[in-house]
Amino acid sequence: MTQSLQRSLGERVGHALAFELIAVGICAPTLAWLMNKPLGQMGALTLMFATIAMLWNMLFNYLFDQAQRRMGFHRGLKARLCHALLFEGGLILVLVPLAAWWLSISLWAAFWLDIGMILFFLPYTVAFNWSYDVLRARWVSRSQVVQACREA
Is residue 17 within 8 Å of 3, Cβ to Cβ? Predict the structure, then answer.
């Protein structure tokens, strides 16, 4: 593994927090406007969604890793599709009832809200991680130049 691919636990936590905080900053006001709900109510909901998604991500990936060790499957396209569908399905099972309760809307309306969130997060995830990788590569490159200058 090259130096530029190694990431500390602190960097991973910072990456996850930045991802979620920016998403909340985009989603809360957008959803408040689209649903004609108070910003505080939508902000609290998006924070709950973000927290649940992060915790579910850690738990689900641990369980998926355990299943792979037990069953010995390769993480090819089929396994990755299964992973994505099971992950999103688990999130839907938790988030839809939460949204319905929190917003006093039907489960059907909450389901469509969750589908909208998924459709937002697909391109957002790509854009955020791509931007992060580009900015991180620049930072690592500058750090290596500074380190080389100090050693010279």
Answer: no
